[in-house]
Amino acid sequence: MSLKDDKKVVRSWAMFDWANSSYNLVITSTIFPAYYTAITTTEQFGDKVKFFGFDFVNTALSNYVLAVAYLIIAIISPLLTSMADYHGNKKIFLKLFTWLGGLACAGLFFFTLDTLEISLIFFALAAIGYCGGIVFINSYLPEIASKENQDAVSAKGFAYGYVGSVILQIICFAFVLKPELFGITSPSFPARLSFLLVGIWWISFAQISIRILPKSSPNFNAAEKVKLSNGFDNLKKVWAEVSKMVILKKYLVAYFFSAMGVQTIMLVAASFGEKILQLGTSKLIATILIIQLVAIGGAILMSKLSRIFGNIKVLIVVVVIWIGVCISAYFIANEYQFYALAAIVGAIMGGIQSLSRSTFSKLIPEQTSDTASFFSFYDVTEKLAIVAGLFSFGLVEELTGNMRYSAVFLAIFFVLALSILFSLVIKQGKSLKNYQI
After folding, report:
1. Residue 250 near residue 381 (C-beta atoms within 8 A)
2. Three-state SS at 51
3. Which residue in 129, 116, 25, 20 sits closest to 69, CA to CA?
4. How far apart are CA 248 and CA 270, in angstroms?
5. Which residues, including other chains, have CB under 8 Å from residue 288's CB and lie 6 or more apart?
6. Residue 105 pLDDT exceeds 60
7. What is the pLDDT of residues 307-350, one digit of tens each?
8. What angle separates helix 90-107 from helix 58-87, to the nearest 10 degrees?
9. Do 83 and 222 form a contact (C-beta atoms < 8 A)?
10. Which of 63, 294, 360, 426 lies in disulfide reach of 390, CB 3.0 to 4.6 Å?
11. Is the separation of the CB atoms in 93 and 34 below 8 Å?
């Protein structure tokens, strides 16, 4: 029996986004950045901190740590997909990275200025756990959804993720804003409790996906187990195929540059609001909640628009808006302007992520059964883009002393992505219709 478009399987796949998106919201977007910036900013040293004996600007350091985490996952993901082929079981790795990420978030419960080094290691491990799980959950998409439904299923995953993460964020919000209602007297306890709750939420809800999703990879052959080093060989093989496919190759280059901007903005937005505008935790949480709620509609809207105008044309419009976001960030002067910009980001954030994933899925050759290797290639592209984006953002801040310049610098990446997408429409417009994009 085919698993494609089975409602129960699709819902279980989407529940993985419900589970791990709490990490994205609480750890990368709201409470952790505000808490981190607050405890690492002191009267004596300002925003400078020591990390294993070296001096850094606090926000630049967190960007560098994340960049290293993403670089690690980019390096090991080919090995992971090869291991998945070796064992014929993606679920092993969904479990592994779920527990790694969840337990690392729980470990942040002990984060104080005195435990900065070990806490940032937990921070990096949580990112690795999140990204590692994404490698394998994404590779299920072409297995569980027919081509004509992949945009909608991808959007469904993001929508589930936004709803689930908002629910947990509201729970954490109550602890942060009204600690006295729960008998909490320590000023740091609400934030640290939130990190613990993320770990519990992540691990618990991921069990739904782990229980229902199919176990074996479609390309698994017990009689022909492969070497673990084949992961890198598979990447070379995928690249050889991609090199012959003009549309896919151009799309991946455009995706690389757009991901440098999008993913970096998502990871540094809260730190920007806290450091530049001193919004405080409660206002940051409210801002990100606005983004998440608007993003649900954005992801669904982009899916519908792509059916009318095609994926690439919709992506072009979204990238143009992202360029405007980067330039606008330089001129933001108050919290209300930040809220307005946040609403715009929310409207396009979910859409570009969902549409980028489903567009790549449609461009994969239909005859291939090795979807894990193709999505590993996609994931490596994204992670290397994040490494470059985060490192660039942190470096520009350290060189100029102002995050505003870092934000404007990101616009360059979107301009490059835009030029390539335009080239696709102009030179390969007719061919795009054959891929339903």
Report:
1. no
2. strand
3. 129
4. 33
5. 25, 29, 30, 169, 269, 270, 342
6. yes
7. 888 888 899 999 999 999 999 999 998 888 988 898 888 888 87
8. 150
9. no
10. 63
11. no
Rounded to 5°, angle at Cα 390 from 389 and 391: 95
- Provide, rounded to the nearest whole percent, the portion of the chain with pLDDT above 90: 40
Task: Indicate the pTM of the whole model.
Answer: 0.78
Q: Please name the residue that has the structure tokens 């290397």.
A: 384
Instruction: Provide the residue count of the chain.
Output: 437
Which residues, in sequence order, are CB contacts of 202 under 8 Å at separation 6+? 19, 20, 22, 23, 98, 101, 102, 105
Domain ranges of the chain: 7-215+237-434
316 within 8 A of 422, measured Cβ to Cβ: yes
* DSSP-assigned letter for residue 109: G
Q: What is the 3-state composition of the chain as percent helix, strand, coil, each rounded to the nearest 5?
A: 85, 0, 15
Q: What is the pLDDT of residues 345-354, one digit of tens each?
A: 888 887 787 7
**Do the beta carbons of residue 33 and residue 274 sit within 8 Å?**
yes
Per-residue pLDDT band for 369 (boundaries 50, 70, 90) equals low
What the block records as the tokens of 302 is 């982009």
Query: pLDDT tens, 115-132?
Result: 999 999 999 999 999 988
Longest dimension (CA), the chain: 66
DSSP 166-212: HHHHHHHHHHHH-GGGGT---TTHHHHHHHHHHHHHHHHHHHHHHHH
Measuring CA to CA, which residue among 339, 348, 337, 341 is closest to residue 294?
348
CB 97 within 8 A of CB 72: no
Task: For residue 2, give the amino acid letter.
Answer: S
